[in-house]
Structures are given as structure tokens and as C-alpha cells.
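Pilot study result, target chain (314 residues):
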Amino acid sequence: MQIPSFNRNFILGAILLPGALIVSSCDNDDDPPVAPDTITKVVVDNNDFSTLEAAVVKANLGTTLDDNTKAYTVFAPDNAAFTAAGITDVNAIPVADLSNILLYHTLGSKVVAADVPAGPNAKVTTASGDSVFVTKNAAGIFVNGIKVKTGDVSATNGVIHVLENVLIPPSGNIVVTAQANPQFSYLVAAVVRASTGTTNVASVLSSGGPFTVFAPTNDAFIAAGFPTIASINAADPNTLAGILTYHVVAGRVFSSNLTEGAQPTTVNGGKVTVTLAGGAKVKGNANATASNIVRTNIMARNGVVHVIDRVLLP
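Predicted structure:
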């Protein structure tokens, strides 16, 4: 049953502000009503933030973002952003993880769009303690490569910038990030095998970096002639190392940093070619066909990962 707007806001106010009861009266009916526009209330009152609202309630952050004695900046994913991130039910996420995600979207001060550093990829510490990387250029404002689609939504205790996707905090370095993703099991096996040769690829990808990795999926390895993990384990480790380091570029290159025709130099020493027409792609020197970049901006503590559907050949 749909809760009428007035009752819905009253109920959520009770949830978000436990123990707080404000009674107001006025002698003059012409006095304007008192309507606080805190970040919490802006989220509650906007139907496009219903998923974010549910997340804030579950993570018990409503009171924090309702505090008018402090100022915040919230990079707020709307409902479409949660859908794009594959998050359909915030209640399925443990409270601690959900709180960490939301705090990763929050700064402990008010930063309007005009004050966002140009970067590129200026490091900004969030309320979770982790950092995001912001860029402001002619194309807009980007956070970890994700575009701000609406900036400067005002609140009495700060400002909201609406994001096109959800910011997911890093869970570890590039190797740990790959190990946590089932579609990278062939890549992980290749890194382990390559590290038995003259180049310890696992050590490189676990180091400080930062690096950008174009990470082939399991299907990409199968299409490249590695039908099983056993076939990867049977391959020459130095050959694998040469291929894998050809997928690694020094620095954080988010999707927002990719430009048409760019040819970044890889850790291997060779160059790959980036094209954007018809969707972002990256091509190796020996590839007949470019690889599609099918997912972007997966954060790691020492860099960023983009998922590709072909193995790049030097």
C-alpha cells in the first residue's frame, strides 16, 4: 500500500530522528511553516532517492545527516545509479558494509561544484577514511571516473551532488580485488603462474602503484587459447608475464580520463590504443580486433581496474 506523502515523511522523521519531538505553535496563521531542509530531509522528500533513503535508514546515518551543526558533502547515487551498480536490495547488504559505502560518498565539509579541485584525479579523503579521486573539466565533474549528473543540490547542512553510479570502496590491492571476483579466476591463475618466472607479476600488482589494469575475463582467456586453468598452468611463465604486464598502465586512468586515440605505455614497455567511438575499446599491437571495455572504474587500494572481453597481445 502506498503511504501518503505527509504520513510517509512523518514516519521516516520518527525513524531518522529517534527521541526528537518538535512542537511548534504560532499565534499568527500567516507565519510561514518551519521546514528544515537538511540532507536527510532532501533525500526523504525526493522519490528518486528512495533506494538511498532505505540505505541511510538501515545504516543508521539519518540522524548524522540531519545534524545542522555540521556541514557535509554527499555524492548521492539516485535510484538509477543503484540499478546501474547492480544493487537492487540494500537490505541484503550487511549494515557495516552499507555504512562504509555511504560514508565513502560523504565528505566532512561543504564543497560546492565551483570549489571541486580540477585534478585530474585530485585525492580527497571521505568520511569513511578512504579516498576518492575527483576531476573537474569541460565534460563535467567526475568522482572515481563516475560523472556527477546534477550538482549543487542545496541543504541547510551542506550540499548534494547526484552521481550516475554508486562508489564502491576498495577492498584491497589489485591482486586481492581480482581474487574476490569469480570472473577473474583465469586471470588470477595467470598472475600466479607468471610469478614463477623472472618477473613476479603478483608482487608488482600488489605494490604501491598506482596502476590501471585492463583485466580480461575468463571468457577472454578461453578465446585467447587457454581453455582451462590447467592450460594456463602449463604455459611458459615468462610469456604470460609479458602478456600480463602489457595490460598494466602506470597511474590511475579512470574511464573519464580515456581519450580517443590515446596510446598509453604499458609496464611491458609497449603501447595499447584506446578508442571511444561506438563504446570504449582498447587494442593491443597484435590484436586483429579491439577489446571492448565492458566494465569500468573498479577501485583497488593501489589503482583501478577496467574489465575487457579480449586478451591484449603485445
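One observation from the pilot: Confidence is low (pLDDT under 50) at residues 1-28. A full batch analysis is planned for the follow-on phase.
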